[in-house]
Amino acid sequence: MVLLKMKCPPERRKATITVSVSASSPTCSLDPAEGSNDPFQIVIALHIENTIQPDRAITFCTNGTVFAPSTPDAGIDTLGLGTIGPLVSTERPDKRIQLGNFKPHAARTSQPKSDDLKEHEHLHLLTIPANGEIQIKHNLPVSRMLKYDSHLAKQDLHPGESYRFRLNPDYVGTTWWCWGDLEGDLADKKLSAWQEGLNPEKIEKPTPSEVEDENWVLGGNPAELAFEEKTGDVGFQLVE
Fold this sequence. Notes:
The chain is mainly beta. It has two helices and 14 strands. The protein has a five-stranded mixed sheet, with no helix packed on it. The longest helix has 7 residues, at 208-214. The protein is elongated and about 65 Å long.
C-alpha cells in the first residue's frame, strides 16, 4: 500500500532511520549455476541515525512497505507491489524491466482474537538495534526480474548490459512503531494497536492501570519516526 505520510517538524521527531540500498553483487548472472545458494539480491540496511533515546532499539511494522519480507508460499511478493522502481538500462533508458505494480485489496476479515499485535497472524514486526543495523534482503534473479514484464524475455537481455534502480519513496516508512527490542525489553510485553496521532475510533486505548498491570506498550506517532533514504540509484551489470 502507498503510505499516508504526515508532515512533522524536525524538532518533533523522536528518531530518524537512515535507509541505504545496494545490490548484493555488482553483477547478476543470466544463467546462474543450478542450485546456487548465492542469489542476486537487493539489500536494504536500516540504522538509527538520530534519536531522543540513544540506548533504545526501535520496533516497527513492515506491512505494506519495502521492508516487508517476501513469502512466495503465501503469495506475497514485496517487489511486485511497486516498492522498487523499474530496472532502467543505463545505455538505453527506454529499456525498462518492470518488477510489478500490483495493488492487492485485503479481504474483509473478522476482528483479531487478540488486541496484542504480536499475535496478529499476518502482521510482521522488525527491530532495529540501538547500535548497528538490520538488513532486509529481496531475491532478484533474472527469472524474477522478468516474471511480470510482458514486453521483455530472457533473450532480450545480454551480457554487459547495465541497469539501475531505486526505492519507491511511497513504500519507505511505517504505520506503527514503538521503542524496544522484540527479543529484549519487549519480549514479555503486549503491543497495542493504539498509537499516538493516528487512531481509528474502534481502537481502544489501554488505561494507565492496564498498561501497568497487563504490560501493554502503546504505539508512537508514525509521523515522528522519519525514514531518510539517501542512496539514490543503484547499479549492476548482467553477465553470462
